[in-house]
Amino acid sequence: MYSFITGRIEDKKDNLVVINCNGIGYEVYASQSTVANLPPVGDEAVVYTYLHVREDVFMLFGFKNKEEKDMFLNLITVAGVGAKTAITILSYMSVKELITTFAYGDPSSLSRVKGIGKKTAERIVVDLKGKYSGLEIDKLPLMMGGETNSSCCSEATDVLIQMGLTRIEACRVVQRVANPDDSTEQIIAKALKQLG
């Protein structure tokens, strides 16, 4: 019903932002990362929105971009994942981290999110893996980290997995430390130093 709202930010805290749009204050529930990335109180902002309707409540949810909104819409299609749970997941994990989780079929990162048990994490991954299965796995570290050497990142990730890290943990550390001109050995050395 509401695709987005443009207006002045009146208040923001934790998972809530109030947007003044032509004299009407809209309470918009959002992930902590969305709230943190919005401009300061008093500035104008555009927030992409989804109106969640149940028999007893109307809630407006907000997102910093269309990708986050699309991920939210995918998450709430999973049985047992409501709108508030989806916002909690988006507060703990970025869209790129979630895409990587689904593409690799690794629910361990999701099960660390507050309120998400092992079975729910597994269900989310199973239900959403197909939506992201067309991605090339070898390019995910590149996608997560911006401008890096994809083959070296992929090799470094594989080595870290052999050393006992989960695929998601390995991808995250490689994404944090890799530079465009790093060799596989340099990435591994920096990753081990970061983990150490």
Can you walk me through this structure?
Helix 4 (95-104) packs across helix 8, helix 7 (150-162) crosses helix 8 and helix 7 crosses helix 9 (184-195). A 5-stranded mixed β-barrel has the order 1-2-3-5-4. With 196 residues, the protein is an alpha+beta fold. The protein has 9 helices and 5 strands. The model is unreliable at 135-139 and 141-147 (pLDDT under 50). It has 3 domains: 4-64, Nucleic acid-binding proteins (OB fold (Dihydrolipoamide Acetyltransferase, E2P)), CATH 2.40.50; 65-135, Orthogonal Bundle (DNA polymerase, domain 1); 136-196, Ubiquitin-associated (UBA) domain (Helicase, Ruva Protein, domain 3), CATH 1.10.8.10.
Short description:
This protein is α+β, with helices and mostly antiparallel strands. The chain is built from 9 helices and 5 strands.
Query: Looking at CATH, which topology of the largest domain would you report?
Result: DNA polymerase, domain 1
Would you tell me the structural class of the helices and strands? Answer: alpha+beta
Task: Indicate how many domains the architecture comprises.
Answer: 3
Tell me the CATH architecture of the largest domain. Answer: Orthogonal Bundle
What order do the strands of the largest sheet run in, or round the barrel if closed? 1-2-3-5-4
Number of helices: 9
Estimated radius of gyration: 19 Å
Features:
196 residues, OB fold (Dihydrolipoamide Acetyltransferase, E2P), Helicase, Ruva Protein, domain 3, 3 domains, alpha+beta, 46% helix
Layout: helices, strands, pairs:
Blueprint (H helix, E strand, L loop, with lengths): L3 E10 L2 E6 L2 E7 L1 H6 L6 E11 L2 E7 L2 H10 L7 H10 L2 H10 L13 H12 L10 H6 L4 H13 L4 H11 L6 H12 L1
Parallel strand pairs: 3-5
Antiparallel strand pairs: 1-2, 1-4, 2-3, 4-5
